[in-house]
Hints:
- By secondary structure, the chain is α/β, with parallel strands linked by helices.
- The protein is built from nine helices and 19 strands.
- The chain has helices at 34-37, 43-52, 54-57, 60-65, 75-93, 96-99, 104-109, 174-178, 234-268; strands spanning 70-71, 112-113, 118-119, 123-125, 131-133, 138-139, 143-146, 151-153, 158-159, 164-166, 168-170, 181-184, 187-189, 194-195, 200-201, 206-207, 212-213, 218-219, 228-230.
Amino acid sequence: MIDPPSIxxxxxxxxxxxxxxxxxxxxxxxxxxxxxxxxxxxxxxxQQVRQEGIALNGSERIKMAAGEWYTCLDSELExxxxxxxxxxFEHNSLPPRQRGDVGPALKSLLGAAGERxxxxxxxxxxxxFNIFLGDGVFLNAGCIILDTAPVRIGKGTLxxxxxxxxxxxxxxxxxxxxAGLEIAKPVEIGDNAWIGGSAVxxxxxxxxxxxxxxxxxxxxxxxAAKHHGCGQPGAAGQARLSIRINxxxxxxxxxxxxxxxxGTARARS
Length: 269
C-alpha cells in the first residue's frame, strides 16, 4: 500500500499555474491524446517515478498514470475530463442508427475498441483513453467506468445494465478528500466473463476469463477464472442457494417416510 502524502488544503492556483477554470478554454485536441497512452500505468514509468521523485514534482497526470497519489483538482486533468464529457454526450445523444456500436468521438477517444465491441447508451466514463475493449465486448445501458487507471475488458465479455467500475480510491482523511487526493488502480476482466447488472467492481480488481459476477454484487477481491458467484452478495447468495438445495434433498426421504406412515395408519383404521 502506498502511503498517502502529507495533506495540504487546496487554495488558489500558484504563480505560473493555470486555474481549473482555465481548462474550459484550453481543451486538448483528440489528436494530442495518443502521447498519453504510453503513460497508462506503465511499470517502467512507475519505477522511474519512485526512483527520481517525479511523483513529488511532476504533473498530476504523470502521478495518476504511475499509480501514485495525485490531486484530481488539476487543470490538465480537468481538460481531459471535459474532452471525455463531450464525447460521452455525443454518444448518448446520437440516434441509434447514427451512433452505431460506439459514437464516433467516443470511439476515437478509447484506448482500444475491438471488432463488434458495443457500448449502449447512456454511458459514462472519466477519461476514456484508459478503456480497452476486446472483440465482441458488450456494455449494456447505464454502465459507468471511472477510468483513472487502465480498464481492460477481454473479448466476448458481457456487462449487464448499470455495471460500475471504479479505479479511483480517495484519501481516508477528510482533509485529503477535500484536497482532491486520489490514487488510481487498474481493473482487468478476462475473456468471456459475464458481469451481472448493477454489479460494482472496485479499484485494483482482476476477474478471470469465464468468471461470472452475480447481479448487484460488489467485487472487492480477485476473482479466479471460471469462478461463478464472484463478489458480495454474489458469493453469499450462491452459498445460500446451495444450502437450500442440499436441505431440500435431505428433507425428501423424511417427507416420503411420513407419507408412507400416514397411509399405513389410515389403512389400518
